[in-house]
Amino acid sequence: MAIKPDKIHNFSWEGVDRKGTKVAGEIKGHNIATVKALLRKQGVASTKIRKKTDSIFGGGKKIKPIDIALFTRQMSTMMKAGVPLLQSFDIISEGSENVRMTKLVNDIKQDVAAGNSFAISLRKKPEYFDELYCNLVDAGEQAGALEALLERVATYKEKTELLKAKIKKAMTYPIAVLLVAAVVSSILLIKVVPQFQSVFAGFGAELPAFTQMVIGLSEALQNWWLIFLAGIFAAIFLFKNAHKRSQKFRDAIDRLLLKIPVVGKLIYKSAIARYARTLSTTFAAGVPLVEALDSVAGATGNVVFKNAVNRIKADVSTGMQLNFSMRSTGVFPTLAIQMTAIGEESGALDDMLDRVATIYEAEVDNMVDSLTSLMEPMIMAVLGVVVGGLVIAMYLPIFQLGSVV
To answer: How many structural domains does the chain have?
Structure first.
């Protein structure tokens, strides 16, 4: 029976160095005795060592895809510099400030040290390393060029996450502003409008239709605000639940997103960029085209492209050229098809696909910048109409006060 190694913890320490100067810092180790030994090797006589407690919120920040991209880049850099694989894990583990990331790296290291390959160790963590990532690392190990493949994977992950971040940036800003507008409008309807309503009660004249509508909305919100709020949360919960459980619902949402003006075009171009980037990376790694298309289908992020890639895979497996199959799907733009054809004819398919990815990533970047610039005045106009409309509705009766008197 194998003995499970002690868990690595963070320790804060204070001590005196060889010159008699007081020093302090943090260090990772299995226990206090190990930490004392490590400090002694560094010429530090420890006077105080204290184990740092983990966060009450799960012991560290959640591991994000960008953390995996950074891990891959660090592994690539160190292996290219000639640092052994196990030592690379140690260096990354000690340099990470995220407790969960440290644990993940240590788990992988222990699995590799037990005799498993790097790819097999990664496959045991599918929540962090997808099939594409593991396949590329496996190809690198088989070809004896792990550092080169890790560099390709790192570039792929970095560019993919950068693309996702740009799309999130385009979507987050207007949603955040509209939420603020909804909150401000609700406060006005619940707290401010009733004050005007008590003033209007003594006018003795019929209020304008617009004012009556706003007062009616205010009364409904005052009486039923809890139900409105519960309805919103219920709708969000049902949407998330349906999106998680129903493949048909997810597919319908994917198709709908592509039809939304401006946003659909942004998602379309980002899917083309992901398709080209993923296929370029896998094909350049020496993965056969038909097998590479398996990974590409899931990486596009949209069911329309996933179905198209699956059709392409079936066509290519029967001997059809990639560019002909792409054209037959009716999904891919002419530029991507033509550059793919040139790549197939010249024997530089991975290079041409990389250029396609670069072109469409740049287009997505420009669209995000343009969309953000366009959204700012539009959102300000929406805020002006909503808040200004409420103010006008409240002051219309006052403007008509002269005729009442």
So the answer is: 3
Same domain? For 402 and 356 the reply is yes
pLDDT, tens digit, 9 for 90 and up, residues 384-398: 887 788 878 777 777
Q: What is the pTM of this model?
A: 0.66
Closest CA to 358 of 211, 220, 175, 159: 159
Of 129, 157, 185, which closes a domain?
A: 157
Q: Which two tokens stand for residue 310?
A: 């699956």
Residue 2 domain flag:
no
**How far apart (Å, rounded) are the C-alpha atoms in residues 319 and 316?**
5
Question: Structure tokens of 71?
Answer: 């891990």
Provide the residue range defining the domain that includes 180.
Answer: 158-405
Tens of pLDDT, residues 14-40: 888 887 787 777 777 777 877 788 888
